[in-house]
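tokens incoming
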């Protein structure tokens, strides 16, 4: 039987923390069992799918300049500061792109 998401391949990964509604998390867990894959793989594949299919996002992304990823262009957190983390061995630019505001 064919599935929408292909089998998992190994790639270099970075870690983030997110909060989900319980019903979404339960459905995610069921989908992971169905695919016999981990949460990180399933979430990553879902995001990749959405990023490919969202035309308005792709138009917006194409219009972005390299300056749009600079620290001053990042959204501010509730206390007004940019949220940036610096993990060991990870370039700051990657950390900025992976930052998740709560």
């Amino acid at each position: 039987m064919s599935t929408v998401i292909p089998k998992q391949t190994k790639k270099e990964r970075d870690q983030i923390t997110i909060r989900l509604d319980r019903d979404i998390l339960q459905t995610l867990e069921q989908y992971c069992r169905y695919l016999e894959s981990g949460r990180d793989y399933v979430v990553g594949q879902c995001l990749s799918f959405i990023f490919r299919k969202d035309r308005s996002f792709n138009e917006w992304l194409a219009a972005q300049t390299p300056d749009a990823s600079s620290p001053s262009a990042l959204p501010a957190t509730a206390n007004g500061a940019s949220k940036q983390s610096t993990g060991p061995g990870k370039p700051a630019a990657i950390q900025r792109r992976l930052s998740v505001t709560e």
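note: Residues 72 and 82 are 8 Å apart (CA to CA).
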